[in-house]
């Protein structure tokens, strides 16, 4: 049997577009090795759900192009990408994704937790930080109770739920206790939750931001190494107006916009199946086009999304094979693909230079 050459495989990969990277597989540089008829691909985003189908598609393309059989395997490797200039990377945390909205009530926290769970389902090591000090919601959404412990008296161990590492002020106070703190105290609490948690090795840390463009967002932009921000909105004009403010804020402080998610995009009647654009139609896609960013996708208004999050088992884990879960997983791949397209950070490869007087 004739053996494949690397050039032949690259030629076939040149004809195949990756929908999450927005470029051909050849241009994305995913070919790891060619050994006889063994072809190994390595994607820069978590890909458990597409690995088998992609390997079959590549083998078919090689067969069509060169008449040769190929045994194609697909894996993934997540690397660290560049963040804002002057902000130090967090040890062990490769990429931080901020999920933001211009206003409350658009389903940002529900989107954040399902996005994090979808990234984990695709094979990534994921954590989630609930940065909403005044209204933490992740403990309930993840069904986590109890308080974090500390092994060394210095750093807290993250709580865990559905395969995610999680931290929230909600783990440290009673659920019904109001946080009557001024801005500086909130900022200090946020920084401590982030830096005083022993996150371990994470491919992604998703930060669920409070709504608006205030102190928390500014602190995040100035002190936290963010790989990119996702903006969550609903289709109606007033939500889009506020969402654009959030987008512009991140642009001003040098945080890349990964894209826009339109939540509550449309409603499907459970009895008759009729679709209704309760909050308008196409606002998120239109905003993305106007601002030159990617429209990541739309999530419908569905009662199960709300009820499952309220019950501590969000849609991606409560109904893993459902249409809704697949929508979140598709969104997660697009978000991870956008992160993968950012410049790679190589600073961790350089040795520390120590000057000593003798």
Automatic annotation (TrEMBL):
A biological process from GO: iron-sulfur cluster assembly
CDD domains given in the database record: Mrp_NBP35
NCBIfam families associated with the record: PRK11670.1
Residues annotated to bind ATP: 102-109
Keyword Lipoprotein set for record: no
PANTHER family: IRON-SULFUR PROTEIN NUBPL
InterPro entries per the UniProt record, alphabetical: FSCA_dom_sf (IPR034904), Mrp-like_CS (IPR000808), Mrp/NBP35_ATP-bd (IPR019591), NUBPL-like (IPR044304), P-loop_NTPase (IPR027417), YlxH/NBP35 (IPR033756)
Recorded family membership: Belongs to the Mrp/NBP35 ATP-binding proteins family.
Name used for this protein in its record: Iron-sulfur cluster carrier protein
GO molecular function, one term: ATP hydrolysis activity
Keywords: ATP-binding, Hydrolase, Iron, Iron-sulfur, Metal-binding, Nucleotide-binding
GO cellular component: cytosol
Quaternary structure note: Homodimer.
Lineage: superkingdom: Bacteria
Organism whose genome encodes this protein: Acidithiobacillus thiooxidans ATCC 19377
Keyword Magnesium: no
Function of the protein: Binds and transfers iron-sulfur (Fe-S) clusters to target apoproteins. Can hydrolyze ATP.
PROSITE patterns: MRP
